[in-house]
Amino acid sequence: AEDGIRDSSVTGVQTCALPIYITSYFKPKAPVTGIDKKINYALSSGDINLSEIPQGTLNQVKEDLRQASANGQDLSTEAIKRLIDYRLTGATPKVGTLTLKPKDITQEKNLAKAGFGNLAEIENANNQTLINNLNGLGAANAKEPQIVGETLFNKFKAIHDTNQQKINELYSRAKTIDGRDAEFDAYKFSNTVGENLNKELKNKFLPAEIKGMVNDFATGKVPFNVQSKVQFQSIVSNAMMGATDGNTRAALKVVRDALENVPLKAGQQFGEEANQAFKDATRYTYNYKKLQDQVPALKAVAEGASPDNFFNKYVMGTDAPTFKKTYEQLDPESQKVVKDNIVGFIKNKATGGATDETAKISGSQLDKAIAQLGIKKLNTVFTPEELVQLKAIRNVAKFEQFQPVGAAVNTSNTASALFNLSSAAMKPLTSLMKEYQGRQALNISRALVNPPIPRIPTSQLVSPYSSVYSLLGGEEQQQ
């Protein structure tokens, strides 16, 4: 357009039927910024890292930016961020969905509604592309919550049964080893407990029944042998798990530590093997009960929970730390079941449960579903690359449906009706306008440059169809 006249026809023949601009010879040239630097800067204000973008996608974005900046124009940081989201999903970007400017969105939505170009088909294809993206992340393999619940219930029951069998084996071995009647030094044990409670100022917080049992051992009222010590350790451990007060737990821990380290009475030639066997059994039992407290799914199967609603209650319904601990107990196959059904949950919320053929993704509902799960849960399940993909799907869904304040998108078919009434007068130019407008909406180089180059509009002087064109959502040609 350096000669002041822009060729706006499809065939290369100049015409005055569409808006024309005269370009100023004194237009400023924006500095060309390094493309890699621009991409890095665009991503610095978002939640995607450059290293998480596949190389093929990155190469495509770089080529888009090279074309847009070929004439020395500066590149829009915000448009670059949106372009990356589109390239990550494989959806087709349009000028309006990259700029999010009211005038661009107004033009594209109204022209799509009036049947101009293939904009409506592109919107439909983008919707299907986003659905396919979710299916690819795992939604295609999602099952009904009841089926998933039964599958995971059986997995956690198998984990529980394995641990319970191990506990039974350890105690069975300990009970068959000679030396269960070997005695510990009850006097030293009692003194250690008392001294450490006083040192930590926790004496008054030790429960009375525990304090009474320590005294019974010290006075000889109850034999303090290998077997009774193990039973007492179990009582103390259960009391610790049930305690809600921090001082009480600290006082009980003093007793537990003293039990762990109490020596056998001097001069005995037996009991060490039995003592170690019981130590192994009690330590394993304690650690598994602690794991049950951290993973409600394990405690639930131990207490006879039903598979019904198991997935929603003990997996999806847990907080982020509990979810992470629960997820880590599963084998890779079961982890994939959880992951697939999380994506299925997101897709179901975003589409209202519709089938793929009729589904329309709601950007706002998809965003709510992701927010409901929370980023910590998603980080547990997805790789960084998969999480970037999910975020891109969310963003594109919102861009596709975004209607900013100031947009005049026609929702009453008046634009389509007006075009039909005017079609006889405009018949010679109908196909040309459709092709031209469709091409302009997909010319994303226009959206990637910032700011636009100043132009001198002359369309009102040369175009007899400018009024009809404006009513259809048209705007002055930008380049």
How large is the share of residues in beta strands?
under 5%
* Structural class by secondary-structure content: mainly alpha
Number of strands: 2
Number of helices: 23
What fraction, in percent, of the residue positions are helical?
55-70%
Description:
By secondary structure, this protein is mainly alpha-helical. The protein contains 23 helices and 2 strands. The protein has helices at residues 35-44, 55-68, 77-89, 95-99, 102-113, 119-137, 145-176, 186-199, 208-219, 226-242, 246-261, 272-294, 296-302, 310-316, 320-328, 332-351, 363-373, 375-381, 384-401, 414-442, 445-448, 459-462, 466-471; strands at 21-23, 455-457. It has a two-stranded antiparallel ribbon. The radius of gyration is 36 Å and the shape is elongated. The N and C termini lie close together (8 Å). Mean pLDDT is 83; it is low at 1-32 and 464-473.
Question: What topology does this entry show?
Answer:
Layout: E1 21-23, H1 35-44, H2 55-68, H3 77-89, H4 95-99, H5 102-113, H6 119-137, H7 145-176, H8 186-199, H9 208-219, H10 226-242, H11 246-261, H12 272-294, H13 296-302, H14 310-316, H15 320-328, H16 332-351, H17 363-373, H18 375-381, H19 384-401, H20 414-442, H21 445-448, E2 455-457, H22 459-462, H23 466-471
Antiparallel strand pairs: 1-2
Helix pairs in contact: 1-3, 2-3, 3-19, 5-20, 6-16, 6-19, 7-12, 7-13, 7-16, 8-9, 8-11, 10-11, 10-12, 12-13, 15-18, 16-17, 17-19
